[in-house]
Design a protein that fits this description.
The complex is a heterotrimer of chains A (234), B (245) and C (282). Chain B has 245 residues and is α/β, with parallel strands linked by helices. Chain B is built from eight helices and nine strands. The C terminus of chain B is likely disordered. The chains are: A mainly alpha (234), B alpha/beta (245), C alpha/beta (282).
């Protein structure tokens, strides 16, 4: 209890004082997580939608793969990306190991299956509702994808936020491919891990509190958006 | 829209099996460009399946659908469903979407969309979100959407089934105008009054078979088949073993 | 509209993906910028003691480029360097470091500084190890089967710990009382605090560790508890991309009087943690 109290007052002091290091960490976290979420959505939503509406050879295999990737342990993804980006690995020449780019890559790989699976579910349900009408109007399954994605924009926004939340909470993979370098690849989660391992619990809790507030705020925004859209569009 | 001949629309030996059940059996009939046909029958008789097959949404198990002798499915035909499906955008935007999908762009597109929404009397609601409109308004919007494409034929599957009499009356009026503008009408309905007022010709289905096809006045006064006679007297039992017609 | 969006998108799908990738990369890479920097593979104990937070700004001022430290266990740091993912190695396991140079991965090993290990344990000290003899202390812990938390992670600290057990006549401790956490110094101390167990730790990590619960220093001052740190440039002959000029500059600075003074200047609560001991010609 004392720890929590101490941490909350520390958090407020750090935030109010505009502590550069703290805000730098927060800014970097937002940067990489938003980038990963955008990338995962850009790739995953059309992918999920296509799998939902089109028959193609190997479709069942793709569905099984996507579902399997959902259960892939994050540290394994981190390890694989590390081996890819290491100088001794195939993409070593790019020199992006231990940079924010590596973090974005790892996080995107983690979020992509989630976004694809959720999008697939939403689009599949919508396609069931829209299929006859769209076919009647002359829209093929493939061309229906952008229409469906736009029509589902409010639901897909919550998917995007779920993806962002997943990206922002990742620790293990980010630690491995980022290296938790002070001022370069230290994000909120890895900073919390570091402070906790140093036994500096108040600081770790302070960072954790900020992270929680952030995630809650985003989800509240998503909820409000859905409520507004229901009123507007029914 | 394309100027190639579309009519007659001929169903030849049309048989459709859905999920192990025979929904349509050896249907033969012809539709010409000025037709106003109502397809009648008990629930489960196969009316909706017939419309969907003619429209090209269902592939027949046997037999074929021919448009002016060709198997190619033309694009200048439209269908209005019992419950209209609208996108999450404004009423006008829904019409513009259909036009855009069919290659109409720019000023021409907005003009035709405006024209269509005016003709069904929904101009005041053009900017409203389509999905918050009432059932009757959405159905009128669906008609406007179909009509804007200037189709040669419009299929309507129970268009007034979920509507109150006032809204149903509006739909009837619009259907009349659509036909007057040169579009063939094929409609399924339970409302015998509507069928009587709207159709020139009646096609009667009983358990997937075409039992009778005759001009409307003759059908309603002197039906030729016993099943049709029973139907008109309201005694026809509801078939329970088939999927929704 | 969407009909055309669909065609547009599918036609330029690759361009869209590339654009999305570039945008994300640009967005995420902003902090990195195009500055010069080297990557130093070091240990968690140096990181967690706060030494680098104090030392690196000094290095930057003196050298004009960034030093990026990736802090992992000694075993992992050396492995990183073997793969070519680091330019300089800064660890504390003389045997492993000398092997590293012998294998051709390191150019030359320089002794930089030392700190010392201590044994911490519950205030009540049921095994009665308090004093300045590490060998005797460990023997008593093993005989009384008192709980002991070990890092067991191939780190320099872990290697030292095993050497001390061997000196006490125990080849590899085994039993319920010997808890292998497989983690860094901080987490291991957390575990020890939680279980009221003994543990071997470097003084630096201990001084900045805030979650002590009932633990205190029980054994210190034994010269055997010396913990020597070494620095090496990764050999560019093995990995051509190693930043050998900048890396060499950093190594030179760390063993220079200025660097050594910076190391000595680092204190926690008035206590110096690391003692520079570079001797030219060593």
């Amino acid at each position: 209890m004392q720890d929590i109290q101490a941490s909350l007052s520390l958090a407020l002091r750090l935030l109010a004082g505009g502590d550069r290091e703290l805000w730098g960490i927060v800014a970097l976290s937002l940067n990489v997580s938003i980038a990963s979420a955008i990338l995962a959505c850009a790739l995953g939503m059309p992918l999920g939608a296509l799998v939902a509406v089109r028959e193609f050879p190997g479709r069942r295999a793709v569905i099984v793969m996507l579902n399997a990737l959902l259960g892939l342990p994050a540290v394994v993804v981190g390890l694989l990306v590390y081996l890819l980006l290491s100088r001794a690995g195939p993409l070593g020449g790019l020199g992006i190991l231990f940079t924010p780019t590596a973090i974005v890559i790892a996080q995107t790989l983690l979020v992509l299956p989630i976004v694809a699976a959720l999008s697939r579910q939403f689009v599949e349900d919508a396609w069931g509702e829209y299929r006859e009408q769209l076919t009647s109007l002359g829209v093929s399954a493939t061309h229906a994808v952008p229409t469906l994605l736009w029509d589902l924009r409010y639901s897909l926004l919550t998917v995007a936020l779920a993806g962002f939340g997943r990206a922002a909470s990742e620790v293990g993979a980010v630690m491995i491919v980022g290296g938790n370098i002070d001022g370069v690849t230290r994000v909120m989660t890895t900073a919390i891990a570091l402070e906790t391992s140093k036994g500096d619990l108040p600081l770790a809790l302070a960072l954790g509190a900020i992270l929680i507030v952030l995630v809650i705020a985003l989800n509240a925004a998503a909820y409000a958006l859905r409520e507004w859209s229901m009123k507007r569009h029914g | 829209m394309a100027s190639a001949p579309r009519f007659p629309l001929v169903a030849r030996g049309l048989t459709v099996r859905l999920g192990g059940h025979v929904a349509l059996e050896r249907i033969d009939f012809t539709l010409d460009g000025h037709s106003r046909i109502a397809v009648l029958g008990a629930n489960g008789a196969g009316k909706s399946v017939l419309l969907r097959t003619l429209h090209g949404l269902i592939v027949p198990t046997e037999g074929e659908v021919l448009w002016a002798g060709s198997r190619a499915r033309p694009t200048d035909q439209a269908m209005v469903f019992q419950r209209p499906v609208m996108l999450r955008r404004s009423a006008l935007a829904n019409i513009e979407y259909a036009l855009a999908v069919n290659g109409v762009q720019g000023k021409e597109r907005s003009r035709r969309a405006r024209e269509a929404i005016d003709r069904v009397g929904l101009a005041a609601l053009a900017g409203r979100a389509a999905r918050v409109l009432s059932g009757g308004e959405q159905q009128r919007l669906a008609l406007a959407r179909a009509w804007s494409l200037r189709p040669r034929v419009i299929f309507l599957d129970e268009p007034t089934a979920s509507l109150d009499p006032a809204a149903a009356g509006e739909i009837e009026r619009v259907i009349g105008e659509i036909h007057a503008s040169g579009t063939a009408i094929v409609i399924t309905t339970h409302h015998l009054g509507l069928a009587r007022r709207v159709a020139d010709e009646i096609v009667f289905l009983h358990q997937g078979r075409l039992t009778e096809q005759s001009p409307a006045d003759r059908f309603f006064t002197v039906p030729r088949s016993p099943e049709a006679a029973r139907f008109l007297q309201g005694e026809l039992p509801w078939t329970t073993t088939s999927p929704a017609s | 509209m969407d009909h055309h969006i669909a065609r547009f998108v599918s036609r330029f799908a690759t361009a869209w993906i590339a654009a999305a990738l570039l945008a994300s990369v640009a967005l995420a890479s902003r902090p990195a910028a195009a500055q010069d920097f080297i990557t130093v593979a070091s240990t968690t104990s140096t990181e967690q003691s706060g030494l680098f937070k104090h030392l690196l700004p000094e290095a930057r001022k003196a050298l004009g480029f960034d030093v990026r430290v990736v802090a992992v266990g000694t075993g992992q740091a050396l492995d990183m360097a073997r793969r070519g993912d680091a330019d300089v190695v800064f660890v504390h396991d003389k045997v492993a470091e000398e092997r590293f140079v012998a294998e051709g991965f390191g150019v030359k090993r320089f002794e930089v500084m030392y700190n010392d290990f201590v044994i911490v344990g519950p205030k009540s000290d049921s095994a009665k190890i308090e004093g300045n003899d590490v060998t005797a202390g460990l023997k008593k812990i093993a005989e009384s089967r008192s709980p002991f938390a070990s890092r067991a992670d191939k780190s320099g600290t872990h290697a030292a710990e095993l050497r001390y057990w061997k000196a006490a006549g125990i080849d590899q401790p085994r039993g319920d009382w010997y808890r292998e956490t497989g983690s860094g110094m901080g987490p291991t101390l957390n575990t020890a605090a939680g279980m009221n167990a003994y543990a071997l730790t470097d003084r630096g990590t201990w001084l900045s560790f805030r979650n002590r619960a009932d633990l205190v220093i029980l054994v210190e001052g034994d010269t055997k508890l010396f913990n020597q740190y070494g620095v090496m440039l990764v050999d560019p002959a093995k990995h051509a991309h190693v930043k050998k000029d900048l890396g060499q500059k950093f190594v030179d600075w760390v063993i220079s009087p200025a660097g050594q003074a910076a190391i000595a200047a680092y204190q926690i609560g008035g206590r110096q943690l690391f003692f520079p001991n570079y001797k030219a010609g060593a």
